[in-house]
Amino acid sequence: MKDHAGDLLGAAGSVVGVVFSVFTVGLFTFYLTANGPQIRRVLCSRMPPERQRRVLWAWNTAIEKTGGYLYSRGLLALINGGLMFLTLKLLGVPYALPVSLFVGVVASFIPIVGTYLAGAVPVLVALAAVGPTAAVIVLVEILAYQQLENYVLSPRISQKTMELNAGVAFAAAMAGGAVGGFIGVFFALPIAAIIQAFLSTYSRQYDVIESDLTQVDQPKLPTTGPGQQ
Question: Domain range for residue 168?
Fold first, then answer.
């Protein structure tokens, strides 16, 4: 027991540190939101009108992108975690609620690698607690849900919230994790979306030269024959 006391204390300290960081960020965000108009008036009072318009546009874009990101990711986490909870409960796998919460949050808020990290946990728990058949069923549920999310849920939910290239999202998450740990990963994607919005608004775009290297295959739309609606 004494040999593992240091490990337990270290793990507890890490959990407390994460909780404290989340609480600090949440408290700062609350005060910043509550006093937003006063802060914006103070900042804008030091700028000429044209710069004020640009700053207010940037501020509004940041709010929209961050809110859209949290909404879309939170909704996907709720759907993913809820389906996983039902699957684990039907199979009789223990710790269904905490495992489902972990799967929903990690898979939704950490791009690309989060899906594999989150999916490994319920499969291992089901394998250890129930058996290989339950583990295979959980794995099938994870693969089926990922197809549903990638081709149906995520495009429709993200269409009106935050559009971000998968490669850019992965690079932003890696950079945010290297700088600020879990909190950095959490805020990396909305920051990347804000930067992308700024570049798309202020950068100049040109017509792309047609080439085999720039050709994008468009999906074929279903055709309706005579008598079809």
Answer: 162-203
